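Example record for the data management plan.
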Amino acid sequence: MTSPRDERLRVLPWWLVLVGLLVAVALGWWVLDWLLGEADRATRPDTRATLRVDAIRTGLTVVAGTGGGLALLLAARRQWLSERAQRHQEAVAAAEQAHRERVQAHAETVADAAHRQQDRQAATAEHDAAERRLTELYTRAVELLGSDNPAVRLGGVYALERLGQDNPGQRPTIVAVLCAYLRMPPADDARESEVRRTAQRVLTRHLRATDDRFWPGVNLDLTGARLDAFDASGCTLTDADLTGAVCTGTTDLTGARVHGRLSLSATFEELILDEVTGDAEITLDGASIERASFDRADLSGPLSGRRATVGRATFRGTTFRGPVTLDIARFPESATFREAAFLSGLSMEHVVFGGYAGFRQARFAELALFRFTEFAGEAWFEQARFEGKASFGRARFGGPVRFDGATFARRPNFDQARAAAAHAHAWPEKTQVRLADDDWLLLTDP
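Corresponding structural encoding:
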């Protein structure tokens, strides 16, 4: 529908005004004629003239009044037209202003969009340039690392480190490249060892959270690597894999924090994990270690060392919060677990202790299995606490055995265990021992 404001103005015809005037004259004439007729019917001649004069005056008054009313009507219409014209001008001005504002807003929007597009294009160009520059630097560093000259390779290691320090997004790739370099067979050059030790230091110094150059969230894939005196003490290791690695010298992880999975199924001359903490799943399956130390470590995750061979091992004051499985492991020299705490179970079935096996003051909060285990030397369990079930079934004790002061929440199982008759032993209370032959004692459960 069209609003009244939008209706077209109808022009007043000239003849309509003329008709109004004629109506006024006709009305006055009719009134005059009627009054004069009434005056003529008056009986007294002296009043007839007066009445006629009054009739004429009244007729003229009617004509004048009608004309005045018509003039007033025309004046009111003129005022209405003036007000309508004013409203129309104001509406047109408001519409023009709104249109100008819309045009201005559109222009600003277009300009803003164009500016943003320019910014995006500039950012894209800058990003592309940075990526090209980064790629060139990375390619150049890798080329240096692959040089035949050890000094040039050393420069490539430092170039990669600088690149990773300045570009956090490239750190996982750079760490992967350095790990791959350490996985490669060493070159027949006396200076190669210095390059490899430098690569090791670059990796580990960026894994220490106390260092302002800390690179968080990177993983070490050193499977099959050749490492010499690998020092990761104080580092934060997440998913570090040394499976199949050959580690000469001392591999030091003292005070490290380990998460995810730590695979140490490798060959070590000396492995130190003193005061290590974390929730990582530690794997030593099949490892060959001449000397290992886990003193005062606090490990929340499981530890597995199936078929591992550890020449000399110490676990003094170590807390194992997860299950420990060392089945079929070998300790040819000695193994010390003094004051160690096994809070989630221990399995040492078919383990061979070639020398001293010490569990003095150790705590076994849950199941402790030593079935089929061979203790070739001294086996000390003095003041140990067995809070769960303990089983030494078919174990073999070739040296003296001491359980002095040991406590058991449940009666231990020594069924078919054997002990050398040549030594003095201190067994838990109510353990039944009888002579099997001249060399061995046979232990049975009551």
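Summary line stored alongside the record: The chain has a mean pLDDT of 88.
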